[in-house]
Design goal:
PBP_dimer; 7-stranded mixed sheet; membrane; alpha+beta; about 25% strand
Length: about 700
């Protein structure tokens, strides 16, 4: 075979192979279109069209009076399918639309917006995000009337993609209690604990995949609408919450403390009216709510002398003592085995009655009594811890409740000094909620209520879950001994370590606590201070605990640091609560005008006063409902004059009830002291004076 013939054979083989491949292509095309067409069309459909989740609108969180604590507000991302609009409408409207977009977003010129939309239309681009900035509902309503956009989604191609954001009308108020939920569905507070109700049920809708990987929603009959979440109504009172946070923040700042907590609870029901937790920010500048020390495990701390209430309960229940018998405390030091118990007072208290020992918070007296009467059977003393329900968590409605800790007889760590130290609140770890529950039970005649913070879960008028007051201990001690304990707590304020907060208008009952902090295995001179109690003592409505950790400065004890915060909050609650303080209701005064008796109120919020006059069938001059006004009787009617409180000067609060005066002045950054009852008769800083932040103003009521 010569060389030429060899080449010819090779060429023919290649030609035959090419011919076979060419014949196979039409066959494969026909097979794909005819035999396998349905399969591949289904795959293409799956790739380019997909059912995706449509998030449900999250439920709202409310305060007890219906005030909104958290809600989901709709925001929108604006996109456009520029190929939808018909040519004549597009040409007629594109210039105006581009100009309006430029004026609204203020980030590009009208010509830039026009060029961007025109280019997308020429490229047959079906989905164009006009601006990454999200707009609110009002903005969406405004844009819906613009050229091209007014033709809607099907006629103009506009797409308003809904994106919901969580919004808190009261900003940081009760922020840790309201809580949060992140993208990984981890969080804290009510948002996290009640997420199963709040989140609702997501729906599904058909989306089309476009060039660039974006997805465009398309209408489809099989779309499933999302079911919005349930609303959660709490027991919180926004006014009490605000008062508690303000008072705590001020004391933390003044004392340069690490953190503090306040819980206010309704005695008869166990409803939590306020919880605030403020911790020094990591930057060292100011305080924020970063952890719920009032309830969480990190808030479990040796309570100190507030635990002496349990010691007195055990001693009284065992009939071991009478309050008038005496005990020797000597020079304020007593040795138990290898450790010495000491009183806070240098030189000691000498001989005291047991009542005086409790009022003065003598460590030596209480530890000696408990050791004497329970030392041979410490388990008997610890049984009272179980009787009052302090050893286990309450099953509180917020996830993350801390578990109490008690050193137990017979276990590792128990020693001969354990019982004396437990009796005054050491070798014990409780969070503020557990301590408060004990004091609340004493205020409630011995009946211990389970603390709760959510009262209902609902959707519209339909209630899904209703939470009622729950008794967890019918009687923690005999009625006789409860009355004795109540008397002891009143004595602490009248004669003992908290006499600095005694109040002439109403009685406070409670107990101070000062616990040395354990640092590197040694008890230090850094303190955990507290005050737990209730008011009014003769008819308790609210119980409260205030804890402040590591306060700086002189006299950093519970009576000096935490008790004043308790009083400040209690004073303001007392002033705001008409049931407790009926003298501070909006009084009605009589005045004569043309011989007609006219009831009128001296000053207040226009909306509230107009409601009163309307109910009484009286004529009153019109005023903006949001304005503060003064009133005068004139020509058989009531005339309102605006009391401008928005100026950067000290406002005129004369004639206002205390609660309104406090609201106005504290929102101006002023510190308020007051004396008397009723309405404001005089103010120490004249109205119109230049406003100085953090200045103190004194009010005289009458």
């Amino acid at each position: 075979m010569n060389f030429k013939k060899s080449i010819l054979i090779r060429v023919r083989v290649v030609f035959i192979l090419i011919a076979l491949c060419s014949a196979a292509i039409p066959y494969k095309v026909a097979k794909l279109q005819m035999a396998e067409g349905d399969v591949w069309r289904e795959k293409a459909e799956t790739i380019n069209f997909q059912y995706r989740e449509v998030p449900a609108t999250r439920g709202n969180i409310y305060a007890a009076d219906g005030s909104l604590l958290a809600t989901s507000l709709p925001f929108y991302r604006v996109a456009l399918d520029p190929t939808i609009a018909k040519s004549d409408r597009y040409k007629a409207g594109i210039d105006s639309l581009a100009k309006m977009l430029s004026g609204f977003y203020k980030d590009k010129s009208a010509s830039s917006y026009k060029r961007m939309i025109n280019d997308a239309r020429l490229d047959n681009k079906r989905y164009l995000v006009l601006n990454r900035k999200q707009i609110g509902y009002q903005g969406m309503q405004e844009m819906s009337n613009w050229p091209i956009f007014r033709e809607g989604r099907l006629g103009g191609g506009v797409i308003f993609e809904k994106v919901e954001k969580r919004y808190r009308p009261f900003n940081s108020l009760a922020s840790r209690t309201v809580g949060f939920l992140n993208e990984d569905e981890y969080g804290a507070g009510i948002e996290y604990s009640f997420n199963n109700y709040l989140q609702g049920q997501d729906g599904k809708a058909l989306f089309q995949r476009l060039a660039g990987g974006s997805w465009k929603p398309v209408f489809d009959a099989e779309d499933v609408k999302p079911e919005n979440g349930y609303d959660v109504t709490t027991t919180l009172d926004v006014n009490i919450q605000d008062v508690a946070e303000t008072a705590l923040r001020r004391q933390l700042t003044d004392r340069d403390a690490e953190f503090g907590s306040v819980i206010v609870m309704e005695v008869k029901t166990g409803k939590i009216k306020a919880i605030t937790n403020l911790q020094r920010n990591t930057s060292g500048n100011g305080y924020g709510e970063n952890y719920n020390y009032a309830i969480g495990d990190q808030g479990n701390t040796e309570p100190g002398s507030t635990f002496k209430l349990l010691s007195m309960l055990a001693l009284l229940e065992e009939n071991k003592i009478t309050l008038e018998e005496t005990i020797e405390t000597g020079n304020g030091a007593h040795k138990f085995y290898n450790r010495t118990m000491r009183d806070a007072k240098n030189g000691g208290y000498g001989t005291l009655t047991i009542r005086e020992a409790f009022e003065k918070s003598s460590n030596v007296a209480v530890s000696k009594l408990v050791d004497e009467h329970f030392g041979a059977s410490p388990s008997k003393f610890m049984a009272y811890v179980d009787k009052v329900g302090l050893r286990e968590p309450f099953g509180f409605q917020l996830i993350g409740e801390g578990k109490p800790y008690f050193n137990k007889p017979g276990e590792k760590g128990w020693s001969g000094v354990s019982l004396p130290w437990i009796s005054i609140g050491y070798e014990v770890k409780l969070n503020p909620l557990h301590t408060l529950a004990l004091y609340n039970a004493v205020a409630n005649g011995g009946k211990m209520m389970k603390p709760y913070i959510v009262q209902s879960v609902s959707k519209g008028n339909i209630i899904e879950e209703q939470y009622q007051p729950e008794v967890i201990r019918k009687q923690i001690a005999s009625e006789k001994n409860i009355k004795l304990l109540q008397g002891l707590l009143e004595g602490v304020v009248e004669n003992g370590t908290a006499k600095n907060i005694a109040n002439a208008d109403y009685k406070i009952a409670g107990k101070t606590g000062t616990a040395q902090k354990l640092i590197n295995g040694q008890y230090s001179r850094i303190y955990y201070t507290s005050f737990a109690g209730y008011f009014p003592a003769d008819n308790p409505k609210y119980s409260m605990i205030v804890v402040i950790d590591s306060p700086k400065g002189f006299a950093a004890y519970g009576g000096d640091v935490s008790a004043p915060v308790f009083k400040e909050i209690a004073d303001k609650i007392y002033a705001l609560d008409i049931e407790l303080n009926p003298d501070n209701q909006q009084e009605i005064f009589r005045a004569e005008a043309d011989g007609t008796q006219l009831p009128y109120v001296k000053a207040g919020k226009a909306e509230e006063l107009q409601g009163i006059f309307q109910q009484l069938g009286l004529k009153a001059s019109a005023a903006n409902p949001e304005e503060w006004v003064k009133t005068v009787a004139q020509d058989a009617s009531v005339q309102m004059s605006v009391n401008d409180t928005d100026k950067s000067t000290v406002p005129d609060v004369s004639g206002l009830p205390l609660r309104d005066a406090l609201f106005i002045l504290e929102n101006k950054g002023l510190k308020v002291n007051y004396t008397g009852k009723g309405r404001v008769k005089a103010q120490s800083i004249s109205a119109g004076t230049e406003l100085r932040p953090n200045a103190t103003i004194n009010l005289v009521l009458g």
